[in-house]
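Appendix B: complex inputs.
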Amino acid sequence: MTSTVRNKEAQRKAAMTVLAHSGAAEIAERLAEVAVPAHENLREPENGLVMVRGRIGGDGAPFNLGEATVSRAAVRLASGEVGFGYTLGRDRRKAQMIALCDAMVQSADFSGAVEAKVIAPLRAAMIAERNRKAAETAATRVDFYTMVRGEG
Amino acid sequence: MYVAVKGGERAIENAHRLLAHERRGDRDVPEVSLSQIAEQLSLGVDRVMTEGSLYDRELAALAIKQARGDMIEAIFLVRAFRATLPRFGATEPVNTGEMQVRRRISSTFKDIPGGQILGPTFDYTHRLLDPQLAEGFVPEQPVTSEAAQAAMPRVTDILGRDGLIERSPAADADAVVGDLTREPLSFPADRDLRLQNLARADEGFLLALGYSSQRGYGRNHPFAGEIRFGEVEVEFFAEDAGFAVPLGSIALTECQMVNQFRGSATEAPCFTRGYGLAFGQSERKTMSMALVDRSLRARELGEEANAPAQDEEFVMSHSDNVQATGFVEHLKLPHYVDFQSELGLLRKLRKEFAEANEAPDMQEAAE
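Resulting structure:
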């Protein structure tokens, strides 16, 4: 695999991560601000299951923990780029929007706009939410050093 | 016969209509919403997802509502729903070492890298009913403080560096991961199948078995090496995309039990371990699971195995509350024909008994 292909794949995965973490309403709201190119569904959005795997001891051989609902879709732009959308949950529309964004990320004409107007603001919201939770969690950290006994 | 069936149908229909009415309760009281259940009864939702073996908060909330809060009935509904969707495949194994931790504690080391993080816990509450919660209580916003960027290695990873604890069994690329939803159980079962069984097992059953091992029925000296709860990323290798695509994150609880040593002439003694993993914040469940996982390793570790928690066939065959409730509750269904034959046999036996007891009297009378 060439490094450009790998870079493109990394960029697509990074965008997919942000989209999978975002709500369908938020994605739709952002997408409305972009001139979406002509496209068709290559795979009609559908619901299904994946078996979630863990590892024995956290780091050992895999085992089947239990299933999760997922949705998936595939979209082809009129210019030929094919995008794939996968997300936890049963929101088919969200999977379709992720596929559309993934196709746009691969298009020279649209990757700039989708990155700036959809992915970047959603990423900022995702990070802000993560930081908020991390800060709340940090406040419950036990600091044993504050328990030093006073002198005399 | 035909008439009886028709009568039964109408009674069943009316019973279900009455059930729907009772489920709604007093119609002057506002109806409970799925988001209220998902948000405010979240640990119940976690249990239904774990034992229903399906991660979907909204469906679990619906199941709880439909089941009127009967958890096993809700778990049953979720299990049945699974059968309606196709399975696209299995995810990449999740990496709990990279969890966005919401809670992480160790009872073995005070000063663990990353620290002891209590998170949202019932621990240290006084277990006094709080009348404030009865109505209209608005809790304060949580306190925040600067989050450390330090890594949070698993406690077992730290012990592992010095060889003080056994390694987890290594992944074998050629081995098929056992799946009890696809093949019927057979014994002896490998640890992957045992963990899958325990992950969906009834919490109460595992709690009792884990407790029994602590009380001496197959003692294995456990310490809660680490319990962590938080969000982990899930990835799925998508054939069409050609790479592992991110699906989003799920909440998981993981428990690492650290147990008494093993060693041999050729192997230095080291701690052994038991493992628990479940959807959502399921601490009691994962602790019990880790205790029972360790108990079920008795034969592998050359220990005497004569306690219930160490009996793989006993534990795995009775751990599933959907199977268990199906068999127990089927006793409610009509057994009229079976019972008629039992009744016939009993009458015959009683007649024989009466005749045998009457016979000597008659003989005496004749004399």
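Residues 3-131 of chain A form one domain.
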